[in-house]
Amino acid sequence: MAHIARKRFGQHFLTDQSIPDNIIRSLNLSEDDTVVEIGPGLSALTLPLLEKLNHLTVIEIDRDLAFRLRNTYSPKKLTVIEADALTVDFNQFEQGVRIVGNLPYNISSPLLFHLMGAADKVRDQHFMLQKEVIDRMVAEPGSADYGRLSVMLQTRYKMYSLFDVPPECFDPPPKVMSSVVRMIPLSEDRPIAKDEKLFAQLVSQAFAQRRKMLRGSLKAWQIDWTGLGIPETARAEELSVLDFIRIADFCVDHKLEH
């Protein structure tokens, strides 16, 4: 029986096999790689992954699709975790795990933030997402796409937009263009804010009214902009990730609380 895409799960199934083939080429897999696929769906990417790997783990929220996967592939080749990816602890997987998937667009940002908690375990991540989201992920300071998502993810990953995927490659076709992104966790010696919770709060506040100057949007913290060497007339979109870390650390060092 044909599976009908479920809107509540944000299901759009790949029908153009050239796209999974391009993703597989981008991965440059070894057969003993530890790979976890999020949202295997109808196996468009799962099958070519299994052809390259000794074993694959998939996370599928749809019980009908999970049942189909268990009855299609041997458990020696495929482990099926039937769960919402937002509830899965990705730290359970082996060091160097590679995570791939056509992510449900309705939970893409929460899922990307959830995965940050396991970044120390991850070798790389390759995801298909809404192009607009990936443009924001890889955006540089000064661009219209640069915002909270850019800053928060760039503290943890080096990211590359690989290629676009048009709507007609899916069934049902989404109303947006899609893209594939590569995310590589940064090393342990990356710049890290002294108080990551405060850092996240500052970034969120700075971009809440992105056209506002920082002296207005971050007024509550009473920051010494001259001492930091950052113009108080600057706007959030003009600051680099390092600038935001410097601001957050200044607040910690001077015990400035909102």
From TrEMBL:
Catalytic reactions on record: adenosine(1518)/adenosine(1519) in 16S rRNA + 4 S-adenosyl-L-methionine = N(6)-dimethyladenosine(1518)/N(6)-dimethyladenosine(1519) in 16S rRNA + 4 S-adenosyl-L-homocysteine + 4 H(+)
GO-annotated molecular function: 16S rRNA (adenine(1518)-N(6)/adenine(1519)-N(6))-dimethyltransferase activity; RNA binding
InterPro entries named in the record: KsgA/Erm, rRNA_Ade_diMease-like_C, rRNA_Ade_Mease_Trfase_CS, rRNA_Ade_methylase_Trfase_N, rRNA_adenine_dimethylase, SAM-dependent_MTases_sf
Binding sites annotated in the UniProt record for S-adenosyl-L-methionine: H12, L14, G39, E60, D84, N102
Any one GO CC term of the record: cytosol
Pfam families linked: RrnaAD
Family annotation (SMART domains): rADc
EC number: 2.1.1.182
Family note: Belongs to the class I-like SAM-binding methyltransferase superfamily. rRNA adenine N(6)-methyltransferase family. RsmA subfamily.
Protein name: Ribosomal RNA small subunit methyltransferase A
Gene: rsmA
